Automatic annotation (TrEMBL):
Biased composition (Low complexity): 432-441
Coiled-coil intervals, chain numbering: 141-211
Keyword tags: Coiled coil, Membrane, Transmembrane, Transmembrane helix
Keyword ATP-binding in record: no
Protein name as annotated: Exopolysaccharide biosynthesis protein
Length: 451
């Protein structure tokens, strides 16, 4: 059965249904594996419980200064001090992976932490914020002496200017009379100018006072205790891994079905070999269409249901031994008109084909038909040289060989001078029940009934 193109939705749904029916154990195993991978990934990628604390930086701030303060919040000094206060006694290096800081609008530094429990997350956020405020205040108070002295000198100079201006205004106000003379108008003009200078000095003094409060930082309230773990949680990663591996298994089967180039139809096999299909025979095997469960991997394959093809139709129940024998006798009868010496070729890895070749050889011995069996390597086939009046009969299972493998086999037969007289396709069938040994027939009757 050739796999039709996956362009039709009905075909895709049918193939997916076959995967679910015949590979459900393998898909469940893949889902369990994906869940295990998700659980392992949660150890690395699940943040646990998260919460945040906000710290306000008072006064005008530059963008670069805010970024510097965010780096200070996650510095080793702050984290070491917070670790020393926390009751579960972590180390600063451990907290380095659990604490991040970012700059928000309005001169606010947001400290985000993660921990294994909600209580630990809340305690960690509060302690890091408090230690950041303390350390930032220490840095501001430990500024250079020259800068502090310069600010103090500027403030003192401004105060003196305010006092001098105020004194001049008072003196001028006393000397100005009530008459509206030219001198009085000039005096009033000078007074207005002095008042303007005084207001400017007062504004400068206020700005200087604000500058002295730049280092003040305030924690905007305690952090909130998280009500649940942050995404992605362990449950989400486990479920995501299970679904991902399950879908990967389904689509992997569909991809394998489309990339499978093994021929299943009789016309395609006959065209690749360049010879007709003489017959199709049923082969009963104790395991049906299952592969032999040899070794550890074979047992695992059988346990997961991967020991039988899923794209082929379900295996049918065999008829009795007499009806199966008729098909083999027909093959020998059709060979009777061909070469006198027939070489049966079967691949060494084709278990069903070897069983069919063995039954053909046994029947040929009973009927005194010259028939020899030769097993070849599928990848690099080698065929014995032809003898007088010899030919080749290829026995293979449907869906076991690609077109190029059959073409190479035909070329090997041609190189050996062998004529491919035909091919026999084998189909595994399930035994219908205990069967009696067939009664031996006379050779003449056997060949006569097989025509």
């Amino acid at each position: 059965m050739e796999i039709p193109p996956l362009t039709d939705d009905t075909v895709r749904l049918a193939l997916i249904g076959q995967v679910l029916r015949r590979r459900w154990r393998l898909l469940i195993a893949l889902a369990v594996l994906g869940a295990a991978v998700g659980a392992g990934a949660s150890v690395l990628f699940s943040p646990g419980y998260q919460t945040s604390s906000s710290v306000l930086l008072q006064g005008p701030r530059q963008a670069d200064e805010l970024l510097t303060q965010a780096e200070v919040a996650t510095s080793s000094v702050v984290l070491d001090r917070a670790a020393a206060v926390l009751p579960w006694h972590p180390s600063g290096a451990d907290l380095k992976k659990q604490v991040t800081a970012s700059v928000a609008n309005g001169n606010v530094v947001t400290i985000t932490v993660s921990a294994d429990t909600a209580e630990h997350a809340q305690q960690l956020a509060d302690q890091v914020a408090q230690q950041f405020v303390k350390y930032s205040g220490q840095l501001a108070s430990n500024s250079a002496d020259a800068s502090v002295q310069l600010a103090q000198e500027q403030r003192e100079s401004l105060r003196q200017q305010v006092q001098l201006t105020t004194q001049k205004i008072s003196d001028l106000a006393k000397s100005v009379g009530g008459d509206l003379t030219v001198e009085s108008v000039q005096v009033r003009t000078q007074l207005e100018g002095l008042r303007t200078s005084l207001e400017q000095a007062i504004n400068d003094l206020n700005q200087a006072d604000l500058a002295t409060g730049i280092g003040n930082t305030v924690v905007l309230g305690p952090s909130e205790r998280p009500t649940g773990p942050a995404a992605p949680t362990m449950l989400q990663l486990v479920a995501g891994g299970a679904v991902l591996f399950f879908l990967a298994g389904v689509f992997g089967h569909l991809f394998a079905a489309r990339s499978d180039r093994r021929l299943r139809g009789e016309p395609e096999i006959a065209s690749a070999l360049g010879s007709p299909i003489l017959a199709g025979v049923d082969v009963t095997t104790p395991q049906g269409d299952r592969l032999p469960a040899t070794g550890f991997y074979g047992k695992v394959r059988r346990l997961l249901g991967g020991d039988r093809p899923w794209v082929l139709p379900p295996i049918e129940t065999s008829a009795d031994e007499v009806n199966r024998g008729i098909r083999y006798r027909r093959v020998l009868a059709r060979l009777a008109t061909g070469p006198a010496d027939v070489l049966v070729l079967v691949a060494e890895d084709d278990e069903t084909g070897k069983l069919a070749a063995g039954q053909l050889a046994q029947l040929a011995d009973r009927l005194s038909v010259p028939l020899r069996t030769f097993e070849f390597v599928a990848g690099r086939p080698t065929v014995p040289d032809a003898g007088p009046g010899s030919g080749v009969l290829v026995v293979l299972s449907a869906g076991s060989r690609t077109a190029w493998e059959l073409v190479r086999l035909a070329e090997a037969c041609a190189d050996a001078g062998q004529e491919v007289v035909g091919a026999v396709l084998t189909h595994p069938v399930r035994p219908s029940g205990p069967e009696a040994e067939p009664v031996a027939e006379a050779p003449e009757k056997a060949l006569a009934g097989s025509a």
